[in-house]
Amino acid sequence: MDDLDRALARLAGAPAPAALEGIEDQILARIGSRPAVRGAGLGIGVITAAALGIGIVGAELPATASPAVSLAPLGGASPLAPSALLIGEP
């Protein structure tokens, strides 16, 4: 058993500090005393609606057609092959 195991075993056997008595009640009392934030829901709703609108408009816009490029490794010359990139041929 190394030093860390001995220290952890000693810590596990030690009694809890007296300062921790009733800490749950203190924390729950502080949480209960805080005022609830109520204005954030409207802002999040507006942002959500804007993002949804942008998504719908973006999905409806037609995409421009791009020429299909074959990237098959065994079929013909690939425009992204290192030899084609070094020579500069399409």
Brief summary of the model shown:
This protein has 90 residues and is an all-alpha fold. It is built from four helices and no strands.
Commentary on this structure:
The chain is mainly alpha-helical and 90 residues long. The protein has one domain. 54% of the residues lie in helices and 0% in strands. It has helices at residues 3-13, 23-33, 40-60, 82-87. 0% of the residues are buried. The model has no long low-confidence stretch (mean pLDDT 81).
Q: Which range best describes the helical content: under 10%, 10-25%, 25-40%, 40-55%, 55-70% or over 70%?
A: 40-55%
| Measured distance between first and last alpha carbons | 68 Å
Structural class: mainly alpha
Overall number of domains:
1
Strand segment tally: 0
- The outline comes out as flat
Helix tally equals 4
Which radius of gyration do the C-alpha atoms yield?
A: 33 Å
Strand content: under 5%
Helix and strand pattern: HHHH
Major sheet attributes: none
> What is the typical, i.e. mean, pLDDT?
81
Give the uncertain stretches in residue-range form. none
